[in-house]
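Worked example 3. Consider a protein that binds pyridoxal-5'-phosphate.
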Amino acid sequence: MLELLPPPPTDPLWDLTAEFAADERPERLNLVLGVYRDAAGRTPVMAAVREAEIRLAERSESKEYRGLSGNTAFNRALLGMVLGAEGTADRAAAVQTVAGSGALRLLADLICRTRPGTTVWISDPAYVNHRPILEAAGLRVRPYGWRDADGGFDAAGVLRELSGARRDDVVLLQGCCHNPTGVDPSREDWAALAELAARDGWVPFVDLAYHGLGGGLEADLAATRMLAARVPEMLIAVSCSKNFGLYSDRTGCAIVLGGSSRAVRHAETTLQNAARTLYSMPPEHGAAVVTTILEDGQLRDLWRAELDVMRGRIAANRTDLTTHLSALGCEAQARSLARQKGMFSMLPLSAEQMLRLRRQFAIYGTTSGRINIAGIPGHRIPFLAQGIAAVIGTGADAGAGARTRQSPAVSPIP
Ligand SMILES: Cc1ncc(COP(=O)(O)O)c(C=O)c1O
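Given these inputs, the predicted complex is written out as structure tokens:
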């Protein structure tokens, strides 16, 4: 049977990560995946997480099956964190999922089971897995532009395009720290989007993966809460991968907001049914960790403080890189960096320039120009800036030990 398989496509980001792992140049810099790294280049376990794990291990009571919604205390805690007063029981329900990706998929299944073939609008560019997840669930995808010619948020263009969305459509919006561009709508832009959704009846589908890492937890959740207060129905995919550092524990939840408690209960059961056929139940560990943190005042404060440190480091990296680029005459790159937010930035560099960064300087970003700002050890920023200056022709040829790799062809990927 397996002999019949045609060569399948592989995942470009993971291919690039493997290519990085095989690169033996000591100066190599991995800015591909959305992972936070500290000043020493490590992705640490947060102290609040470690403490919660110790407490959980000490009282380790049972590993009996959870229900189809996973850990219900976790679901309640995340509803409260994300929606505050809007997360009340008769308006909203949450189902624990296999991280943010699992939430996106379960909610896509919910849309499809409600109305097969629904059109979901996604930004262009979008998170690399949005389209594949939605299409795998059987939905139609329609892109809408995100940035203007100057690289900022294209408020007029987005509102114009989305005024073509129909009542039956769903619009996917990233709640903060847009991946891959780092370009977010302003508060006024979000208000205009909420107004449009309320007027035209399309359903906002908010993807929250970076809350706490842009402008602070409350600020990063403000747009989601504003939308929730304005529209009758809404879907939210929540990831705990980045802001709790629980990448491999696969922790997240799917939230639905509905116009009646009956509709909300039906949606919740539909999500449970979808989970049952995909993986039955989500893993417990990460959800237990998050619940332990959020239910304990001290641990919660510790986590918030650590999150603020991470956010501060990302912002400092951005400022530092901006300053270095500016000093090297890379004005367009410095300008775009300065107004972006969160883990990622999209540099105005061509695919060829990004490939040159990879070949000549062992600096790995995607060919679309995306780099992970949170992945740069602070002392490597001058090296990165010099590499960028060299490929756009404003700097010296990045003296910092650049050695062209004689390896096979580098694949152009998004
Ligand atoms: C915008 C966005 N949504 C969702 C996810 C999925 O995150 P995870 O499944 O690791 O929680 C990511 C991961 O990078 C992301 O960037």
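Take a moment to read the result before moving on. Residues 386 and 398 are 5 Å apart (CA to CA). The pocket of pyridoxal-5'-phosphate is lined by residues 34, 99-101, 127, 174, 179, 207, 209, 239, 241, 252 (CB under 6 Å).
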